[in-house]
Each structure stands twice: as C-alpha cells, then as structure tokens.
C-alpha cells in the first residue's frame, strides 16, 4: 500500500513539473542566450578552410623543411597589424603601475596610513574589502597580480581611483618618495640628468593549464599541469646595438620603443615568452571589462597563432601563392615594392624604408592583414623541427614541444631578402632571444563553425 502511494505521488509531481514547464515535457536542451559573435577590436575574421601548406614550387634554398601538404584549419580572428609599440606600452604601463600601487599600499599599511587620508601615501592604501565577498577571479585579477609573488596582503584591493604621481616636485610625502625611489635605477648609475625605470622590477606573473600534458597523462593531478610563469615585460632595446656589429643604431635604441613618433610601429625586442605573456594579459584585461558588464560572456583567450594558422592567413585565400599578394614578384605593375625588406645587397632603403615602417603600411592581403610579409618577422606558437611537416595532423596542425626552445618565426623582416618573405618559408629563433626584427601579432578562436572559406582558392 505504501509503495502504491509513493508511485502515485511521484507521478503527480512529475505531471505538475511537466505542466509548469514550457518544454511540454520534450527534450529541448538547456536554453541559453542567443550567441552573437563579436569581432575583437583591431582584428579580422579568417574563415576556416583547406589549403596547400608548404612550398608549392622549387625550394631555392634547398632547406626542404616545408614540403607541400594539404591541411585544414578552423576559423579564427587575427590582428590586422603587428602589435605596435603603443599597444605593447599599454601592457608595460599596466604592470608598472600595478607594481607601484602594490608597493605604495604595502608601505601605507606598515606605517598605519588610513585609506581615507586626503594627502600623503594614505591615498594609495589598500581599500578595505571583505574577502568572503570576492570571488576567485577578483582576487586573481584585481589584487596583487603584478609578478611580485606572495606579499602577505592577498585578499585586499588596490585603490586605482587615485592617479599615480610621477612628477618628483609633487610627491605627497617622504613615504611616497621612498617607494618611487626604489623603482628607478640607482642615482649613481644615471647620466645626463636622466634617471630611468629599473626595468628588472616590472614582471608579469600568470598561470595556465598545460592541456596537452593533461590529456596525454591522465594519471597526473591537476596541480601537476598548472604552470606558473614570470616574465620581465619591458622589451630589450639594446637589440638595435647587439644585432648589428660595427653599426651606428643608437637613435633606434634610445627612441624606438619610448618615443611617440614610433607609437604605430611594430614592437620589437620581445622574446617568445614576452609575446605569450602579452597574450595572457590581453585576455585578462578584456575579461576584466566583460565582468564589469552584467551578463556579458568572457572572451576566448588571445594567443599566438599556430604555424598553419599564420601561413593560411598570410596567403589570404590564394592557393599556391608565393607572397601574400600573389606573386611571384616583389614589385607591383607600377614598379613599387610590395613590402618592407632588403631588395638589394646593402640597400635597405630601396623600398622607401630604412628600418621598420608603421604597422598599417603597404596594401593588405585579401584577408585585410597588413605586412604579413616584411616589416618584422613574427613569433608563432610552434617549435621548429625540419621534419614536422612529415608527421603533423592534417586538421589544425600544430607542433609545440616544450623541450624544444627553437620557436618558429614567419614572414621575414625589414633586414631580410625576398626569400624569407615567402608565405611558405620557415625560420626560427630561440624562445629567450629578442631581436630588432622580430615582433608578433595575436589571434583568438572563433566561436562557431559556420564560417568557412572554399578550399578551391580564388
């Protein structure tokens, strides 16, 4: 009797649940918000498709590291230009300012300066916060995320409503001056009355999950595949001197990254690790804004392109092309050079450019991407193996061996001959090396599969 009552009660509850639902008892799936893809600022959508990757004609250099192979890549967004000095300075300034604010807040705490003080270092004291009301992301993003490591003040928010003061004549008190003094190179090492930032003090620290390692080693615990990285963020401006022996390039060393005249030029002097750190910061920066908008979805991670993605985008939909504009010539029908490179031995200026040019120079390819050949070579998320084309997958091929520090660079640069500008030419540099002719651009995965290009070419 009790069992009958139980069955009857269960049936009634199920009936009531069904009657109160809009799905009429059918399997309709979880109903979420309608998804509308949003093209990231400064990026172009590269529709996925198949293409012939590698050398379509003779390998004149006889390197034989890129035999022709048909592969398919998924859709993605790519920066229309190389990352510029101005854009990279936004990253550097964020790390610099966050580091300074953290040090100011810590000292204010130590000397007992209150957050409500209208003058002095108290203006920069930690904003009292209830840690219990902060989620993991807020702690991760907003607190002491500056590469300082453990400070003992985790769980307290920085006060970012007050502008930092860089004019020494306007420092609010001696405590502020004490902190700022530690951020510059020692006075004894300055010259010409100029005292610059101690760039070694500004580091970006981030963590990520090694998905490939986790997938291939199922017995590993989660903590075993969480990787922590710490990277100095300032580019190495000395590359302009070190890359060229017996050459006067001091003006580029002194001004190229810092001066507004070069703001729209591609950043150089960044290592592969720094390029990857920039991608991590860009993702956090965008998602911090998304979190401030109620109901806004977080964006996919920005990252370096795979080697196949880079070549596919560089070709601009043209099959078997030598250069992004087609080929096989480096001049237009009007006799103008199509890219910034070294067209004649010893003559860097024949193409109307001595060093780099602005990131949005020359005509873009058919995907509206600028300087996929020349200007600066570009880091990609791939390790260089001369035989990798022999064993890579034919769908979204990618080879990035953590133990192989030779990372692929593509596209050639302002100091290279035309061979390196070809869309199929591969080159490499070591991950911890910075050069005056290597920069990068970022990509972001496209959410959805309905955007594809014909594999038959144009």
TrEMBL record:
Keywords: Lipoprotein, Signal
Signal peptide limits: 1-23
Domain of life, per lineage: Bacteria
Pfam families linked to this entry: FGE-sulfatase (PF03781)
Ranges of residues in domain Sulfatase-modifying factor enzyme-like: 43-443
SUPFAM superfamilies: C-type lectin-like
Keyword Signal among record annotations: yes
InterPro entries xref list: CTDL_fold, Glid_motil-assoc_lipo_GldK, Sulfatase_Mod_Factor_Kinase, SUMF_dom, SUMF_sf
Protein name: Gliding motility lipoprotein GldK
Organism: Mariniflexile ostreae
